[in-house]
TrEMBL record:
Pfam families assigned to the protein according to its UniProt record, in alphabetical order: Rieske
Protein name: Ferredoxin subunit of nitrite reductase or ring-hydroxylating dioxygenase
Keyword Iron found: yes
Organism: Dehalogenimonas alkenigignens
Sorted UniProt keywords: 2Fe-2S, Dioxygenase, Iron, Iron-sulfur, Metal-binding, Oxidoreductase
Organism domain of life: Bacteria
Length: 131
């Protein structure tokens, strides 16, 4: 990431097309066939709109599991990227706090966990319980 992007808090992770996901009854469902960014380890997308109060980061970890988080660093609320090959997440600020897939802070000024959402794969779809 360039210093210019870090100063402005610009992440590499892009929003997922609205046609690839829906939100209903406190649950977000992603059609994984329509989200190729989540096919590869270390890939990610974020969701915004459709009544979500906070953007949601969705990541396929280096362990090949899917995770979802509130897309907000607990230091200064910048968005977060997965770091492919390093098994962690990184805030898109100049301080770039890092977090484990469990949401625990690993390095940098963030001292609190990022919020995780429960996920479940179900027949080519990923369900995320937003609470
Ligand atoms: S906003 Fe993430 S380290 Fe400051």
């Amino acid at each position: 990431m360039s210093i210019f992007k870090a100063i402005l808090g610009i992440c590499e992770t892009k929003p997922l097309a609205e046609a690839a996901w829906e939100r209903r009854d406190g649950k977000v469902t992603i059609d994984l066939k329509a989200a190729p960014q989540l096919a590869a380890k270390g890939g990610g997308v974020y969701l915004r709109g459709k009544g979500l109060t906070k953007p949601v980061l969705v990541v396929r970890g280096d362990d090949n599991k899917l995770y979802a988080y509130e897309n907000s660093c607990t230091h200064g609320h910048r968005k977060i990227d997965p770091v492919p090959g390093e098994g962690k997440l990184k805030c898109c600020s100049v301080n770039h706090s890092t977090f484990s897939y469990d949401g625990k802070p690993l390095s940098g000024p963030a001292k609190h966990d990022i919020k995780r959402y429960e996920v479940r794969e179900n027949g080519g779809r990923l369900e995320i319980k937003i609470v």
